[in-house]
Amino acid sequence: HAGPHVGPMFPPTHPVANAPVGTPPPTVDGFVREFLHELTSNQGVSLERSTVNDQYLALAQTVRNYLSARWIETQKKQRTTRPKGVAYLSAEYLLGRQLGNNLLATGLIDIAEEAMKQCGLDIAVLRAQEVEPGLGNGGLGRLAACFVDSLATMNVPCIGYGLRYEYGIFRQTFVDGQQVEQPDTWLALGCPWEFAHPEHAIQIDFGGTIETYVDADGVERTRWVPEWNVLGIPYNYMVPGYLNGRVNTLRLWSAEATKAFDLAIFNSGDYAQAVRAQTFAENITKVLYPEDSTPQGKELRLQQQYFFVACSLRDYIERVLGPEFDLHELDSRIIFQLNDTHPVIAVPELMRILVDLKGFDWDEAWAVTKKCFAYTCHTLLPEALEVWPVDLLGRLLPRHLEIIYRINEEFLDEVREAFPGDEMRIRRMSIVAEHPARAVRMAYLATVAGCKVNGVAELHSQLLRDKVLPDFSQLWPEKFTNVTNGVTPRRFLRLANRGLSELISSAIGTGWVTDLERLRELEPYAEDAEFRSAFRDVKTRNKAKLNEVLIARDGIELGQDHMLDVMVKRLHEYKRQTLKLLHIVTLYNEIISGRLDPKTVTPRNFVFGAKAAPGYLMAKQIIHLINAVGSTVNADERVGGVLKIAFPPNYNVTLAEKLIPAADLSEQISLAGMEASGTGNMKFQMNGALTIGTDDGANVEIRRLVGDENFFLFGMSEPEVAELQAKGYDPGTYYESDRRLRGAIDLIGSGHFSGGDRGTFGSIVTNLVTVDRFMALADYASYMDAQERVEKAYADTEEWTRSAVLNVARSGYFSSDRSMRDYIQRIWGTPPAF
Ligand code: 475
Hints:
Blueprint: H1 28-43, H2 52-81, E1 85-89, E2 93-94, H3 99-106, H4 109-118, H5 123-129, E3 134-135, H6 139-153, E4 158-163, E5 171-175, E6 178-182, E7 194-196, E8 202-206, E9 209-214, E10 220-225, E11 228-240, E12 247-257, H7 259-267, H8 271-282, H9 299-321, E13 334-339, H10 346-357, H11 362-372, E14 373-376, E15 387-389, H12 390-396, H13 398-418, H14 423-429, E16 432-433, E17 439-441, H15 442-449, E18 453-455, H16 458-468, H17 470-475, E19 480-482, H18 489-495, H19 498-508, H20 529-554, E20 563-568, H21 577-592, E21 604-609, H22 617-635, E22 643-646, H23 653-659, E23 665-668, H24 680-686, E24 690-693, H25 699-706, E25 712-713, H26 718-727, H27 731-737, H28 739-749, H29 762-770, H30 776-795, H31 797-809, H32 816-828
Parallel strand pairs: 1-4, 1-13, 4-12, 13-14, 14-18, 18-19, 20-21, 20-23, 21-22, 23-24, 24-25
Antiparallel strand pairs: 2-3, 5-6, 7-11, 8-11, 9-10, 11-12, 15-17, 16-17
Helix pairs in contact: 1-2, 1-4, 2-3, 2-5, 6-32, 7-8, 10-11, 10-13, 12-13, 20-31, 21-22, 21-28, 21-30, 27-28
Bound molecules: N-[oxo(pyridin-2-ylamino)acetyl]-beta-D-glucopyranosylamine.
Residues 137-140, 143, 291-293, 295, 378-379, 384, 456, 485, 675-679, 697 line the site of N-[oxo(pyridin-2-ylamino)acetyl]-beta-D-glucopyranosylamine (475).
EC number: 2.4.1.1
GO biological process, one term: glycogen catabolic process
Function: Allosteric enzyme that catalyzes the rate-limiting step in glycogen catabolism, the phosphorolytic cleavage of glycogen to produce glucose-1-phosphate, and plays a central role in maintaining cellular and organismal glucose homeostasis.
């Protein structure tokens, strides 16, 4: 089976493949002219009087002009060929900076750099001016951004739908080592990448009641009589493929007050109330909820979710397909991919559109709906599975609740038929949970409605089938599948690590950028001493650049020539940042108590990056502890500088692009069975870091690909975790029996890192010794052993480099291009139209 056509949509006419057809190849002089034109006509300033922000905006505008013509062409072509496309529905897109990516996609990097030089400007300074759109929390949001990049590059028609939060993920600062959140004002200095279309506003209804009526044909029907509404304004972003002429669309919705609404109130004379109504509407897209994996059941969050999918479905059905389209054939033109349960309210919304507005009968509508959705699950944590209280849903979306009830009734009838007399099963599988309060289980609704359900790594998909949705996988085994996550090599290798990219290309050519499996051709170079030396030089330069960035950004100085050991990800107990801390505190404690000679310790920089959900108190205390250990250890002369701890605040995509290329060691140390996949792990591997990790998420697949000898495995396997859980886990026994572990925990408990105050980190210590839900103590000894193996391996520079090169060479599988191929083959289907 040939699979989708992947490659340029138009034969490139000149090296700048995203430039408009027929335009002459861009030149440095031409680029300078266009840039100066943008500066004067858009910013209204001369070069001499311009600020860095003016210059950045003018440069962005210049690049955007190269993309927009191709964008229009892509859409024109799609309107005539009408291919089946993908609508990726995601409440989050963690895009990262756009300028570098768009320069890369248009092939303009060198021309732009030279043009800026001719204007007396440093393009790096302009690029640094961009505030990244942080419209996501972590893995799930970044995955969406990688996927839309890959689909454009693979020439697959895709429209990404999401929300344009006025405030993205908060900006993290530390005050006395504690996290303090600041609003992320990413739009304050202007966003040159978006195209606002207020004229295409869509009205979205909320609240009210439902009523039945008899239609013209004498059929009894239901309709929703809503109480209030808001407008959804689309903001379009260009998603360029890499040098291939395709530019897809990312459409983010922003909420505004409807005119009719405030006009009515204005006419009643209540000016203040009218203005409040405006604010009320705008609240819907005001801020990204900063909870990663423990969503709070907040009404505003449900408003966001419904607003986003209602805008998106209406947009696709009415604007993209148009009134002539026969919606019985909807699945021939679109698949809606649900990025977790956040967009699942789209299921009853499509049913409502088909039944209430388009006159379908129920069965017809359900047959169409079932073919148009597929669901991706990103978690295994029970507290992360979204449920919406029935009273809240009924108040905000009464008709949708009614539709969900009917879906559930018919579904449960199907279960009864398959398993007669099994009422326990009915209760377990019901979309509507009865206890503790009546609530809709969104993952169940997605599973019932979706044509496919996938996990995000092999182990995760297995656990999803066996532990999270076992009844469903028994009923519909063929519905379940796996698509292992991936990351875009354009941003995370080609752009973030120019040195390594050039080294790779000098060895095997440039084809790897869109065909990452070709990195396999590097394997023989692992045996080539000259290549290894060049590879090390790249790492050294990346470390030097990181040092510059950290000094400029935070005044942080790392140890020179140290191993760089990095743990960057959201702060969560299951990810076990505390286990990493126990390793550091153990080394420190052994040194200061004279049992370990610092001269025998491999000098290491430990770098952390992590945001905690603002309401997650334990996570915030762990952040405080990391900072406290950092300042104590860094200042203690007995350590002789061999252990350095850095925790730059506000870890984001931009910082990731600096940290990952410099890393030697990647920490992926979640309790087995907890991390659905991980994607940072893939980025580190791709950039030549070795992984120390548990058998969890995609680590399993990384290790299988790189081989045991190139991976530092430790800890219990998932079945071992389950077994220990079942027989009863007591962290106290580990504490009592392991001298080093006890020493480290006692040192934290003694107040050594908190100016003598035992209370500061008391709850962390108590929690570890008495509860330790994620079994850090059980895996501690094994982790310490693995870290010793790391030290030994790192001492043999040539062997380490050999391993690092092999890690890169074997990372091709983790391109998000491969993930997209898997989605096409296993979920979306591969009609010739792709
Ligand atoms: C997994 N975010 C990673 C990654 O598949 C995985 C949840 C609720 C509300 C807002 N955000 C979330 C997540 O659940 C999330 O980011 N999950 C992550 O998805 C991509 O690699 O293992 O933890």
